[in-house]
Design brief:
The chain is mainly alpha-helical. Helices cover 57% and strands 10% of the residues. The protein is flat, with a radius of gyration of 15 Å.
């Protein structure tokens, strides 16, 4: 996740966290909609928009290094 969610997290205002939780929960697995394939793991925030840069062109040149760089820059989003 990134973009709008990231900027709202940076504001760190308590009232925004409920909206962020709602957005994130909508992206995760819901047992009531078991036919819709969604992940049921932790949510990572692409806080520096690194995935679009490193995951794209650089990922084709050196995929292993691109993954290492991406993992270092993703931030877990605590729900």
């Amino acid at each position: 996740m990134g973009g709008t969610v990231y900027h709202k997290c940076k504001e760190n205002k308590e009232y925004l966290w409920e909206d962020i939780r709602t957005i994130v929960k909508g992206a995760l697995f819901n047992p009531e909609e078991y036919t819709v394939l969604r992940p049921n793991k932790k949510v990572l925030l692409d806080s520096s928009y690194i995935l679009s840069t490193v995951g794209g062109l650089y990922g084709r040149i050196d995929p292993e290094r691109a993954i290492r760089i991406s993992k270092k820059n993703f931030k877990p989003l605590d729900l």
